[in-house]
Write a structure and sequence with these properties.
three-stranded antiparallel β-sheet, 187 residues, alpha+beta, 52% helix
Length: 187
């Protein structure tokens, strides 16, 4: 990966951009708007704190990819596709999300978006199963087990955390269903 160097003497700004992994389009849109307003993305820290540097406004596309931990197959394919001459994408940062800047104009990446959407749905299904298991184990042990007060509180916390995660992933999954219908309608 090539390093992206930036100068501290150039005007910079930081922006907090919160986005769940099933809504990467939100962050991509904000990054593109900042680039068109004359602020180029430099780096992100703590997952949601983005640093921008003053630059010449340009019309570029930003593409983010998310990979479930210990899952490697899609990123290798996506990285080679986005870096190809067809897209001329530069990998700017690796981490929670890999961030690419596509400099070629009028690039149609709908196939990539559909592939990313289907991958996100598979990840959400995996995470939903894990969250449901956490909630079930927490509830079963907390309400029907014979444990000390502290352990029972920890198990209730596991149950509540599992339920909140489950709810979050179900909302994300419904969001991907809506996006898929919209993408199918545009084809």
């Amino acid at each position: 990966m090539e390093k992206h160097y930036y100068s501290k003497s150039v005007e910079q700004k930081q922006k907090f951009i919160f986005f769940p992994f099933w809504n990467l389009e939100k962050a991509e849109k904000i990054l593109c708007e900042e680039e068109q307003n004359g602020y180029r993305f430099v780096r992100s820290r703590f997952r949601y704190l983005f640093t921008f540097q003053r630059s010449t406004p340009k019309k570029v596309q930003y593409v983010l990819t998310y990979i479930f931990p210990k899952d490697t197959w899609p990123i290798l394919e996506w990285e080679s596709i986005l870096k190809s001459d067809e897209y001329r994408g530069n990998l700017l940062q690796c981490g929670y999300c890999d961030i690419f800047r596509i400099t070629k104009e009028n690039v149609d990446i709908q196939d990539f978006y559909m592939d990313r959407l289907l991958y996100t749905r598979r990840v959400l299904i995996k995470k939903t199963i894990i969250a449901a298991f956490m909630a079930f184990v927490g509830a079963y042990a907390a309400f029907w087990g014979d444990y000390s007060v502290i352990l029972r509180l920890c198990l209730i916390f596991l149950f509540i955390g599992g339920l909140l995660a489950l709810l979050s992933y179900i909302v994300g999954f419904c969001s991907t269903i809506k996006k898929k219908k919209l993408m199918d309608k545009h084809e």
